[in-house]
């Protein structure tokens, strides 16, 4: 960051020249407020000159034909109920799905093959006994397999059953390629089934089941509360079973923290540059138009009760008042005067019309630029570029004095 501690060597006689430009009325209310660059007031000056937005356009024409065709794709409730009843009653069933506890779920080969081509391939290789195909789905409880087959028929499900067997159903949806069921399981986990205790297990399962959205959701949850989650039993098990995944997560945590620190640093830097830009605006405002108790000698001042739209104006008034009365008034002798010298030189470097500019010493600092070392000049250029970047980012209607900045 370009340092704001830059200043140019100046003589006290130049301060006398400065005082010749400005008419300062004594006002005790501002005597203590002279730290303009340390102000934490909200940066709202860029809103003062933004024009009102145009009216909203009229409602766009809606293509009713497209809406009608879209309605044709909806499935009536009666149709879903018919398919659900076909599954529950098992009319004409020709497939028997055997679960882990040797229970049997009757179903239909045609329906299962259409709903899951992967399952249909397994059924082609299944043994046939008395006209019935037998296939076993191992390591899955009966309730999970029953809910899975029911979903293949009608996309119907019980909310409590989904919550109870959500991890089993996620595995089944991946193994037998049922994307709609995988999306349902992902949504169920995101809506509250994830906890600090199971998030690491779900993360590993999501990565194995190719569920990128759920993987991202789990990683985000781990990053949000890494300290608590890393102390759970699930994390310890993952550390023993999958140390590579733990290393990857630790790297992500470190990278995320670094990004947060970098983002915070840049935001703090930008606050400084915004304050400097507002100080430049307020300086032009005071020297060109005058404000309350301070301004050019050819202007009628409005008094301390007048309102001002420049948030940095009050602090700058106090700084100028101190500068005009300070007995030291050399760059290295007074902190507040030093800050004033910095602001005046910064304005001079940003000013595009020094011959018409009413800011004191503007032309003087333009000439003094030639005396700076290359290192100081590079730092000043960096500072000016940062402040100008803030002006551009705030928009074209931010400045009332665009010709001078």
From TrEMBL:
Domain BTB, chain residue ranges per copy: 93-161
UniProt KW Endoplasmic reticulum keyword: no
Any GO BP annotation: protein ubiquitination
Protein keywords: Metal-binding, Ubl conjugation pathway, Zinc, Zinc-finger
Domain of life: Eukaryota
A Pfam match: BTB
InterPro entries to which the protein is assigned, alphabetical: BT1/2/3/4/5 (IPR044513), BTB/POZ_dom (IPR000210), SKP1/BTB/POZ_sf (IPR011333), TAZ_dom_sf (IPR035898), Znf_TAZ (IPR000197)
Keyword hit for Transcription regulation: no
GO terms assigned for molecular function: calmodulin binding; zinc ion binding
Protein name: BTB/POZ and TAZ domain-containing protein 3 isoform X3
Organism: Punica granatum (Pomegranate)
Source taxonomy: Eukaryota, Viridiplantae, Streptophyta, Embryophyta, Tracheophyta
């Amino acid at each position: 960051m370009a340092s704001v501690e830059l200043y140019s060597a100046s003589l006290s006689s130049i301060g006398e020249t400065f005082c010749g430009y400005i008419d300062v009325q004594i006002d005790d209310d501002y005597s203590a407020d002279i730290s303009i660059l340390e102000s934490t007031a909200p940066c709202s000056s860029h809103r003062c000159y933004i024009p009102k937005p145009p009216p909203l356009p009229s409602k766009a024409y809606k293509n009713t034909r497209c809406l009608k065709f879209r309605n044709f794709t909806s499935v009536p409730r009666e149709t879903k109920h018919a398919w659900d009843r076909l599954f529950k009653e098992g009319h004409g069933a020709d497939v028997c799905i055997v679960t882990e506890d040797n229970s049997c779920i009757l179903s239909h080969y045609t329906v299962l093959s259409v709903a899951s081509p992967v399952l249909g391939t397994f059924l082609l290789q299944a043994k046939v006994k008395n006209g019935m195909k037998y296939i076993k789905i191992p390591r899955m409880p009966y309730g999970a397999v029953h809910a899975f087959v029911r979903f293949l028929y009608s996309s119907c499900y019980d909310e409590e059953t989904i919550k109870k067997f959500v991890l089993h159903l996620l595995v089944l949806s991946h193994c037998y390629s049922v994307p709609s069921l995988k999306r349902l399981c992902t949504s169920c986990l995101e809506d509250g089934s994830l906890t600090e205790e199971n998030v690491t297990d779900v993360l590993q399962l999501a990565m194995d089941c190719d569920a990128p959205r759920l993987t991202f959701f789990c990683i985000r949850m781990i990053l949000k509360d890494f300290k608590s989650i890393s102390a759970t039993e699930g994390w310890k098990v993952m550390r023993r079973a999958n140390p590579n995944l733990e290393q990857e997560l630790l790297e992500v945590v470190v990278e995320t923290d670094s990004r947060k620190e970098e983002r915070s640093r840049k935001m703090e830097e930008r606050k400084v540059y915004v304050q400097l830009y507002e100080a430049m605006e307020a300086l032009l405002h005071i020297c060109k138009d005058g404000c309350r108790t301070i301004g050019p000698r050819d202007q009628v001042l409005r008094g301390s009760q007048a309102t001002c739209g420049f948030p940095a104006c009050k602090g700058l008034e106090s700084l100028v008042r101190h500068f005009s009365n300070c007995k030291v008034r050399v760059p290295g002798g007074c902190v507040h005067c030093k800050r004033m010298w910095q602001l005046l030189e910064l304005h001079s470097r940003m000013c595009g019309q020094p011959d018409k500019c009413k800011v004191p010493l503007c032309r003087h600092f333009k000439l003094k630029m030639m005396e700076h070392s290359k290192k100081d000049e590079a730092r000043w250029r960096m500072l000016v570029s940062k402040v100008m970047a803030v002006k551009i980012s705030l928009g074209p209607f931010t400045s009332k004095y665009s010709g001078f900045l």
